[in-house]
Amino acid sequence: MTTPLSNLVLYEEDFIKIEDEIKRLRQQTNATVIFLVDRDGQLIASCGEEGEIDTTSLASLTAGNIAATGGMAKLIGEKEFSILFHEGEKDNIHISVIAKRVILVIIFDHRSSLGLVRLRVKKSSEVLNQVFEEVQQKRERPGEAAETIGSPLEEITDEDIDRLFG
Predict the structure, then answer these.
(1) pLDDT at residue 146 greater than cutoff 80
(2) 39 secondary structure, DSSP code
């Protein structure tokens, strides 16, 4: 499935906002680990106790899970299922689609609850949605994004050039 943000390019300030938000979300939910994955199965960011988790496989399988449930949704007349929950013996996985572009994966255990995770994800989704809207706007107007970041050469003065070549 192709997404509006295929070949996602994040500027450093966008990545920092994303990292800050998933760190905050992890703390608020007592989650073990949080991943942010694009719909193509590429890991964007993560925080927490990854331990023995194969993050590449998890990211890929999560994207496949979203694609499969999207197919099921269409069969029953839904656009998609934006939230999935898997309950295990010791760990649970909450998966949600953010801004129809990325997938938020939260792995948590008995130290948290589904209700708390859902409540906190709702608030974090708004923040992450805003970040990805900004990323999309930068992508649609690349010249403007470059102007706001500034040129790496803008701090070089004529005197610096004279010293370098003089």
Answers:
(1) no
(2) T
